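Protein 1 of 2
SEQ + STRUCT:
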Amino acid sequence: MRTQVGIVGAGPAGLMLAHLLHLQGIESVILETRGREYVEQRIRAGVLEQGTVDLLRDTGVGERMDRQGLVHEGIDLRFGGRSRRIDFNELTGKGVMVYGQHEVVKDLIAARLRDGGSILFDISETSVEGLESDRPTIRYRDARGEPAELVCDFIAGCDGFHGICRASIPDGVMSYYDRVYPFAWLGILAESKPVQEELIYANHERGFTLISLRSPTITRMYLQCDPEEDIAEWPDDRIWSEIAARLAGEDTPDLVPGPIISKGVTAMRSFVAEPMRFGTLFLAGDSAHIVPPTGAKGMNLAIADVRVLAGAFASFYRDGSRDGLDTYSDVCLNRIWKTQRFSWWMTSMLHRFEGTGPFEHRVQLAELDYVTSSRAASTTLAENYVGLPFGA
C-alpha cells in the first residue's frame, strides 16, 4: 500500500493531523494497535485551550463540542481554607472548554470515516524503516494477522510515550530531558453534582486536590498520593473523606458524595525529546513530550504540534518548500518549553513535596497569595492556562 503521510497512532495528534491533511487534499493512512472501541473509551483529561477549541470549530469537528462542552471563564485557587478566583475572560478575553479527550477522539474518528479516510485498527508487530530514505516504510500485521507494509513520503509518529516511532531513532541522535515527580494523582469519576461550575485547584497541608467536572451530574476529582499507592486501600468512603478534609475551610464547598464510576492512580512526569524529527519521521504529541496534568496541557500540546506539522506538509506538497519541515521541531519546541515551564510552576506551587517543611509551605502560600492578588501575576497564569498562541 502507498500513501503520502503514514500516521502511527489514532490518538488526538494522529487523528487531527489526518483531518488537517484531508482538508489540504493530502492523503494519509492511520495505523493503530488498539481497537476502535478501546480508543474511543480511553478516558483522559478534557480541558481544551481556546486555540484548540477554535481549531476544532474552524475545521468542522466542533459541533458536538459546542453542544455538550462546558465553557469555563476562570478557575479557583484554594489555599488557607479560602478560594480565590482567577477570571480568565476579564484578564485575557478568552476561556477554556471542558470536553473529554475521548469525546474529541470520537468526533475526529467520525469525521475521518465520513470523509472516506483510512484508519487501520487492531494492527500488531509495527515497525518503521528507511527513515533516512525517500521511501520510509511502516511494516505491520493487519487485524487478521497478515503481514503488510505501507510505503510513505513521510511518517508521523503520534503513537505516544511508549510507542515504536521514537524508539526507532538511532541512539545518539536525540537529547532527552526528563523529570519524574515524587507523587501521583489518585483520580476518580463520580456520579455526583459538581461543587461548582468551574475547577478548584487546592493547596492543603495533606496534599493537593483538584475538583473538576465532566457534566452537570458527573464530577472528576484528583488527590495527591504516593506513586506506589495501592488503589485497593482507597475504598469510596475514604476517598470522599479525604477530599472533604482537603477542601475544609472558611467557605467549604458543598461536597455531595455519590457512586464512584472509576478510580486509578496517574504518575506525574515531565519529558521532552529533541529534536522532534529524524529524516522523514516527525514526532508529535506524547511521543515527543509529556507534561504533568496540573496545567491541563497534554492534548493541547499535541494539537498544537500537528497544526504546525500539517502546515509544513501542505507547503511541501503545494510548492515543494521544505522550510516548514526543517523548522518544525524548533517552532514546536519553543511553545513546548514554555508550556513545560507553566506546568512545572503550577505543579510546584500546589503540591506538597516530600522532605520539605513549614518554610516551603509558607512560601507556596505566599506565591498563591501573590498570584491571586496581583493583576500582573493573575494575567500570567490566565494567559498560559487559556493557551499561548500557536507557534509561540
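Protein 2 of 2
SEQ + STRUCT:
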Amino acid sequence: MGRHGENIRKRRDGRWEARYAVCDENSGKRVSRSVYGRSYEEAKAKRSAVTGRDTLLSESGVLPQIGELPPDLAFETAAQEWLDSVSLTQKPSTHEKYGFIYHSYLEAAFGGVMLFQITEKFARERLASCEEVSESLLKSIYSVLNGILRYASGQYHAALPEIKKPPAAGRRREVETFTRAEQTRLLSVLCTNMDCFKLGVFLCLFTGLRLGELCALKWDDIDRDGRTLFVKRTVQRTYVERGGSKTALLETSPKSSRSKREIPLPDVIIALLMDYRNGKEYIFGGSGPLDPRNMQNHYKRIVREAGIPYKNFHTLRHTYATNCIEGGTDVKSLSEMLGHSNVKITLNCYVHPSMDTKRRYADDLCKYYGGLKGQIGRKNAAVSCA
C-alpha cells in the first residue's frame, strides 16, 4: 500500500516501487519512471539518488514533492492559472461553478500555502471545516482541489498527490421519485385546464428532460413526422461577474456531448405540443428561452394544487427513469435517452425500484414456490399410492 503523498508502494512480488516524474526530452511531456528496492527505505533512497532531491522530511515536517516544482510557487497562483484554463475549455457555467467553489472554500484554506507543502494529510486538515457541508458539495470541493493539483503537475512536471475525499459520515441520500399515487394526482392536475407550464411538466414526465433543456426547447427541435425530440441546448441563470449580484440567462450546449440526443415521443405528446404551437421560436419562452426560475415557480404551484408533498423539479426525471425500468426498458436505451455518459450512472443514480415493484417480485416468488410445492405434493401422493 502506498504512503500518502510519497508515491511509494509495495508490489505483489514483495518489492517496493518508488515512482517519480521527469520531462521527456522528445515530447516535452511529463512521464513517470520507477525505481525498486527490497524495502521502503531502499526504494526511497534510490529515487532520491536519481532525482537529486532530498525526499526526507524537512525541518518544518513538510514532505517536498518529486519533480522540478518551484519552491516559491503558491497554491493560489496555480489555482488562478487553472481557472483561466477552465474558462477557455469549459462552459461559462462550469467556470462560474468552479470559481465559486474555489473562492468560497479553497482560497482561505490554502492561502499562503506553497504547492510543495501539500500532502493528503495536510489538505485534509485544511479542509476539516468543510466536512459539515453536504456530500455533493464536499465532492465538488475535492474535485476542484484535485483539478488544480493535476494542472500544476502537468504544467510544472511535479508529482503532486491526489487528495481523496473522506468517506461519507452517513448513509447516502436516496434519490426521490413520485409514487404511483402521487403520479396519478399530479397527472390529474396536469390534464385539467392545461397551460404551457403544465405541458412542460407533463413533457418532463414522458421524456426525462432536465429543467434547462426543457426551457431551451425550440419548435425546430420537434420532428412531428419522425415523432422525435432533439436535445441541442440548455439554459441557466448565472452570475455575470464574480462577487456581484447581477445575473443573466445563459444559453449553451447541453451538459455533455452525450446530452445531445434524440428522444422518441408518443403520439399523445405530439398531439399536445401541436395544440400549443404559437409561431414563436421557443416552445415555452416565445422569442427567447424560458427562465428556469419561472418554470420552477409554476411547478411548485402545480404540486400544491395536486396536494402532494413537494419534491424538486429533477424528481420528474428520476420518476421517468424509474417508470421506464419498471416498464421493461433496457438500461442501455434508457441511458441514451437520459443523455448519460455511461450505463453505470443510470443504474446508480436514477433507477430506484418502488416498493410496489419489490412487493410484486416477492408475490411472484411466492407463486413460484407455491407451484413448486404443489408439484412436490402430487409426486409424494403418487409414491404413497404405489
